[in-house]
Amino acid sequence: MQVNLHKNARTTPAIRRKPQASTEPTRLLAERYNLSTLTVRKWRERADTEDASHRPHTLHANLSPAPATPRCKLRPWIDRSETKGNETMKTPQIAIIGAGMTGLACARALTDAGYAPVVFDKGRGIGGRLATRRTAEGWQFDHGAQYITAASPGFQTLLEQAERAGALARWADGGTRPHLVGTPGMTGLASYLGRGIAIRQGVEVRALHATAQGWALHLAEGTALFERVVVTIPAPQLVDLLEPAQPLTKAVAHVRLDPCLTLMAAFDPDTPRPFISQADAEAPLAWIAQDSSKPGRPAPVCWIAQASPAWSAAHLALDPEVIVARMLPLLCERLGTTTDAVRYAAAHRWRYARVAVPLGRPFVRDPSGTLYAGGDWCLEARVEAAWRSGEAIARDIIGG
């Protein structure tokens, strides 16, 4: 088969699939394949291996004015202070990297305590694996976390408050008791936590290092300074963000997260619906759920299937369309139908999904006490674990 590459391309589809399938650090892959770290990151975030068009979609006649100051200049993000009597109190400048459950939980607790953190997330939406995909055809899928449960009183209180606010609802999924799900999608809880918080979506923090003035966050638009930084990305990605000698990278070196391949499929209305949800840890499809049976979802018949860790790891390098071709017949067999009844199908690759070896404590902090890292990978593979990590970090900051 002939492969057409862009004339300036330095990689082939075969090379591009290597970082997509690997869970190794970006820097290591860049050195191995003689690529820049930006190139490796680009192809890791892409679902395919095809070159995008390099032609501008729109020709803009007006040129933007030159920036007033050089973009490489270090600058504090914002000077936050308040006056109490004759005394001016300065609020610490805190950046949180990642708008998943851990980042939002930390930001919520800090905001409620009077702080004003700024949350950065490279994605278009918030919530991390509290994810909902909506298509132009009207299909909707919760392709990340499937439901939420609570074991601790604090998290139970949060879920009750979110349910009263309409951000959560009870889903009778065929189990012994209903589970809570976000409404109108799993992102509902993330939106509830994120209300009133400064969240900069679509902004990637490319690097982070310590300076005499504070922590420097390197963004596409420049470099900003913060007094404290909370990093809530998956543990294996810390080595790509921080300097190699940073103590945090060594502290989380033993943490391991398994991948998860998710299939999203919509069927004809008269397709069999033999169950609401089914879990089988030993099967290639470890979890199957009738996603459209959740409260507040559109009427079309939509199903989610998530592969086991072993099956996901074995097929992680495949292109999305090939993943669909492998998973869809397995789902149809379990439903008692054929692929002829399928009206839509797509796959999503979660490279770091299930906590296999946790950190063993709620968070990790560097010796200076100004850099934190946390996530569900600190404790276990549950939404509540991510929340507990973020809450613990916030309490440590507030108490310090």
Mean pLDDT: 85
Question: What is the CATH top level name of the largest domain?
Answer: Alpha Beta
- Global outline: globular
Query: What is the quaternary state of this protein?
Result: single chain
Count of domains: 3
Structural class: alpha/beta
Biggest sheet features: 6 strands, mixed
Uncertain stretches: 1-8, 53-74, 79-91
Instruction: Give me the count of strands.
Output: 21
Percentage of helical residues?
Answer: 25-40%
Taken as a percent bin, the fraction of beta residues is 25-35%
C-alpha end-to-end distance: 61 Å
Remind me, CATH topology of the largest domain? FAD/NAD(P)-binding domain
Describe the structure.
26% of the residues lie in helices and 26% in strands. With 400 residues, it is α/β, with parallel strands linked by helices. Strand 20 (363-365) and strand 21 form a beta hairpin. Helix 1 (13-21) crosses helix 3 (37-45), helix 2 packs across helix 3 (37-45) and helix 4 runs parallel beside helix 11 (383-399). Mean pLDDT is 85; it is low at 1-8, 53-74 and 79-91.
Short overview:
With 400 residues, the protein is α/β, with parallel strands linked by helices.
